[in-house]
């Protein structure tokens, strides 16, 4: 199976601090891959380096065989490498459906012509599919302010999906959610490969990642200290030490 994302030897320095040290990993098409590690381990730095928000000192980022190491952020998102931010960025005065519609990719010549004859037909079909996949249809006409925190997180996920990303990068998507809301979000993340979106999800909370991922990588002080299926990671002594060592 050829890799969708192939990262090799990625090293990032923040001044004198080595935030990422020689990190290599791959994500195959259709996979949900997790990256866990204690606070300060370098997880957000890794997403920043993948999306072009921070420049690596060494290493490479290949996406669908293309070298994107030095590409600007917009070029990466056009290539299908898309991130979410911790702030949900929802429009409170727009319905859930309209929040997805306004996030849809910029119009093309063809969509402008079809919109002229069939207003919004193109985006509506696309948006409808995402609302359906994420079980958002029953609340599609509500405002974000009328929803639970868990539901708002699912809407934010829907917004990230309207551009049909090939790989979605999620930075602590369950931050601020209670355990049952986390479980519901997790279950929906599992569905994304069905619509052609692979996932790289980052969190410090092991339970989210171990429950949803095909493969898990563990980062500690900027280095990968373990990689493998969730069952192996759960009992890995190095991983347990990384977490216990920093719990204070
Ligand atoms: N812009 C920055 N300038 C200097 N140091 C930074 C910057 N961003 C992150 N760091 C440092 O890099 C390390 C990794 O941070 P980060 O990637 O945010 O970790 P995580 O997301 O795993 O909590 C931390 O020691 C953090 O303090
Ligand atoms: Mg972070």
What's the gist of this structure?
By secondary structure, this protein is an alpha/beta fold. It has helices at 43-51, 73-78, 96-102, 109-117, 121-133, 149-161, 179-189, 206-212, 230-234, 237-244, and strands spanning 3-14, 17-28, 32-36, 58-63, 66-67, 81-83, 167-171, 198-203, 215-220, 223-228. The chain folds into two domains: 1-80 and 165-248, Rossmann fold (3-Layer(aba) Sandwich); 90-163, no CATH class.
Going by CATH, what is the homologous superfamily of the largest domain? P-loop containing nucleotide triphosphate hydrolases
Small molecules held by this entry: adenosine-5'-diphosphate, magnesium ion
Strand line-up across the major sheet? 6-7-8-3-9-10
Largest sheet composition = 6 strands, mixed
Q: Order of helices and strands, N to C?
A: EEEHEEHEHHHHEHEHEEHH
Shape: globular
Strand content: 25-35%
Query: What average pLDDT do the residues reach?
Result: 90
Give me the CATH architecture of the largest domain, please: 3-Layer(aba) Sandwich
Number of DSSP helices? 10
Number of domains: 2
3D architecture notes:
The chain has a six-stranded mixed β-sheet, with helices on both faces. Helices cover 35% and strands 25% of the residues. The radius of gyration is 19 Å and the shape is globular. Helix 3 (96-102) runs parallel beside helix 6 (149-161), helix 6 (149-161) runs parallel beside helix 7 and helix 7 (179-189) packs parallel to helix 8. The mean pLDDT is 90. The protein has 248 residues and is of the alpha/beta class. The chain has two domains: 1-80 and 165-248, Rossmann fold (3-Layer(aba) Sandwich), CATH 3.40.50; 90-163, no CATH class. Magnesium ion is lined by residues 43-44.
